[in-house]
């Protein structure tokens, strides 16, 4: 597919279509409080870190969001166990405090459902790397949501993250494989990358499941089971991600 990939800063008229894309994100992910409160700020305050892709007819088919932050600030240095949530908090804290960023973190690469299966995610990842390089960075990190893990919700993320295929030694997970093919290395697991709590009524609305017994509940699209405390009226999902590092 022919693609025209630009920053949102260059094509601000694509903001509305970007939010209107059809995607495969499970509904409950949209209620992560850190993402809820910061996602729109990336678009509003950091449009040069947002990439949009249109096809030959000018239709928006993909987006990629990233944020700059200071990984080597005092008290940091290691990629955080709280992954996606933490890097968003760091990025906007650094922005507020005037810290000079030294690293870019990927936040999301999403392809419209009508354009899946054409290698667009890999092209958006490469464009994100190129954009970070253009902006003066030498490193991109990513708290990757491995897109095959939901099929093995009970499996250990620590095993899954480093599982490889016998045929070529590449990661077993398709999205991790795209990153490694692009030159990334798998660095670590972020076991608590995203935390979503809600009442059992909310979880019922998000998933269509009863959430009426205590214990783990496997939910479509969830990488690990959701922990339900039905007697107390709430459930919590703690999503693990996998940190990868791209040297530019």
Number of helices: 7
Summing up helix and strand content along with how strands pair, one would put the structural category as alpha+beta
- Oligomer, anyone? single chain
Low-pLDDT stretches are none
Number of strands: 9
Rounded Rg: 18 Å
> Level of helix content?
25-40%
User: Biggest sheet: strands, sense, closure?
Assistant: 9 strands, mixed
Q: State the separation between the terminal residues, measured CA to CA.
A: 26 Å
Structure described in brief:
With 248 residues, the chain is an alpha+beta fold.
Account of the 3D structure:
- The longest helix has 15 residues.
- Strands 1, 2, 3, 4, 5, 6, 7, 8 and 9 form a nine-stranded mixed sheet that branches.
- This protein starts with a strand and ends with a strand.
- Helix 2 packs across helix 3.
- It contains seven helices and nine strands; from the N terminus they run βααββαβαβααβαβββ.
- It is α+β, with helices and mostly antiparallel strands.
- Strand 7 and strand 8 form a beta hairpin.
- It is 27% helix and 28% strand.
